[in-house]
């Protein structure tokens, strides 16, 4: 030990005393040296000596010191010093992994970070972290490696696994047949090891080397070691395509497809999986790239062989062959050819064959989009004449699953041809882009209205008579559901194309939203398990400001476990400014969904439990030799630690707790921040977006945005907003008085020092639509507040020549943004019923006003310290801020009173029904798509639903009572 | 289009189209990852356009633990379908058949005796599908499921343990006729 740690000859007596176990003497000598010169090294040496003491009190003192050291996050530059602390830690706590990571791992990481060019240092710290299983710090350190060293590590890994690959090859050469059981110990023997070989080789960017491995009969997809691992074929086809080895790709895929339809000795189609769509795609691509007739003929011949009735391959593989025919027709013919081409017939043929499956539309959509204008017209004409499914033309009964699915597919094509595709082309056109003013006027409202009406009519006819006519299990969705979804989606778009009216229930926008909602709610009575309807309803109810109804739709999704990460955003993003209080309508008292905060806590619990589950399975993978799985599972761990959804759960629950005192404990000592890495808002790495947008229904053209994106009433979750929210929470936390039992003034001072040490980043105004208007104003207020605190509380800034000017400007900005926010709230002209935009403006305005109020109190004590006249002028500025905040809070409170009063008045149910069945104000029947269908709708159900909507509005405004001045 | 690929750990972020269906349970990550850790080659996905998960199968290869070898319920080395789910939008395309065939092939290549699975007694559609593929009921597990999706008023539902013999069971020793009448308790099932 002494040999390793000895820095100076003068230290020899100290180390001799330590080695002799005379710790008292050693301490005396160190104290003497410290009295002469206080250095990190001697501080650490003292701690090390104390850690060797057998006294428990000494060990406790060492632990306390180490804890404080980690909290300070001070970088210690000398490795010897860090290693002394490491030794001391090992003396007092020989095993505890987590504490090592937190204290010593962190010290090592800070040490490396302070000297990024010291290769030796980083290597030693990397090894130490790896040895202790502190993968997080090991990873951070390895990222700081100089490029040369990183390459060295990669090369070592590659050399090692390459050696094993060679051993496998050589062992096979010496035997006539490869038997994995007879391979030497140091060789690749399992499919997972082959996948690891590719992972390592891919990381080093050697595609040729990978292809060489894949072409090798002892290591490739057909080797005995591979045991038929399909992923290796996927790698091979992909690499051949990237390398533009068209002839080889063509030969390979041709042979795979032939094998897929060839029976083995036992008469089984044991290789039918080789008819995978990726094989067909690669086959067609290579055939086209080879540019002569023979390969194209070969594709058609292979399609025919697959579709031959004598070929017994599964129908999913036959479908691939049929789609391959569509693809080869499109890629090998130009729509501008002079002679007639066969694009339309091939589409019709595919539809006739697979139109009774709901995937037919998805399969054909990319091809239909490539049709020229004339072809589109021709296809549309055939659809409108109902001339596609000739064999069933006589069968007018749509109450069979086959027939209704065919009908749905033609409706979707009609939507694509008449609405989605033209809309996309307008949006993508130069004229639209140059005149874009943020409106949604690009929609062709007449065709949308017609489609909405026709689809709703067909839907109502199909469900007439109930589920009994369809022989469905309780868990089945209704086969006609997509018709209703399509109609609702058209109504949704019509709503987006309409402008807001001063009276919410008198406008076309709310009328369309209510119609879509009514239709979907009716459809759910026929098809309870349809989750796409529930997803759309959450969004529609959000717009309407019906929190409890949105929660009811959310509850129907029955989300569990990881789904709480991917789909919570549908309701809980911005819940603190929508419905922060408990749901008292439609949700029972005993429901686990009773309060938003409980749902958010449930989500956070999932993240906490996941960490352990993941690390457990990393080791399980290792134990079972599933090396590739280790990397995959680790990726989930990394992703989950920084998802937008996790950050949302923290921010929203903290905001709600700040507004409404919770009766239940959060279960987390630091208000939920423990589920996120520290200072995430300032981190360079982006948040991971695991929100599931793809499960929403989507019939839009593939080149443009998905429907989920088109139907957003408010900006989606974003990295930008998440960082702003986290930084705002830090500021709010700083302004919060700390009670004496939790550290009082000392803790408050320490919080301020840490705030000043790493002040929140100033967020520039976003270039896109990432924030709502109230959020943007709040951002400006918080930015100004953070800057004022830095100016007032950081003495170093006082000497700056521009100090007064800057401070004045920040004070002004703050007052202006508060005033602007007040004016925004004031200008909500007709807030009854309160739609989501109204609730959002009120809660956001309140939050900004309340924070500014606390800010002025906080600052009043700090500003006194500023020297000269600036202290007085800041005092005056403070008073102005307090007054502006007060005015904002007063305006919010007045608006809340008006909303509550308005909702107490009668007649709202009739207004909702009129808006659905008669259009706005009962005058514009053109707006009501459902008007003509009212005879087919169940009016008693409609009335009950309208009553629930009104009740939900009343439940939503309960939370406004917390917005007190 | 049909394309199969291994289930990747990150697919847990994408499997809502199958898992929001009421017949498909969503478990904690431990459940999925333990399969990725132990039987990665038996956990596969059918991918649709844009990479959507249209269907997936989770399988395993195992036998009952040695201490059970004298039990009448002992299971020799066999493949088991733990979960097979197809999203409501990708039904009637033959994906269930395609995925289960792939597991049967793996079972054959690892020399397993048979493939088995549990299905709700009320799920006639699934039973018909498996019957069409050569499966038959081996035994009925009384109250195997704690709920009854067809009748929320009931407390539990029986499961059928269905089996299909693989190549190794040439004499069909591990299947029986009228298995519906052969009742066992959930604790007899390993």
TrEMBL record, chain A:
Protein name: Phagocyte signaling-impaired protein
GO annotation, cellular component aspect: NatB complex
InterPro entries attached to this UniProt entry: NAA25_NatB_aux_su (IPR019183)
Gene of this entry: psidin
Entry superkingdom: Eukaryota
Native source species: Lachnellula hyalina
Signal peptide range: none
Protein family according to the UniProt entry: Belongs to the MDM20/NAA25 family.
Automatic annotation (TrEMBL), chain B:
Superkingdom of origin organism: Eukaryota
Keywords: Acyltransferase, Transferase
Keyword tRNA-binding among UniProt keywords: no
Composition skew (Basic and acidic residues), residue ranges: 154-181
Domain N-acetyltransferase: 2-167
Gene Ontology cellular component terms for the protein in this record: NatB complex
Residue ranges, annotated region (Disordered): 154-190
Gene Ontology MF terms: protein-N-terminal amino-acid acetyltransferase activity
Keyword Ribosomal protein: no
Pfam families per the UniProt record, alphabetical: Acetyltransf_1 (PF00583)
Gene3D superfamilies in UniProt: 3.40.630.30
PANTHER family documented for this protein: N-ALPHA-ACETYLTRANSFERASE 20
Annotated protein name in UniProt: N-terminal acetyltransferase B complex catalytic subunit
Native organism: Lachnellula hyalina
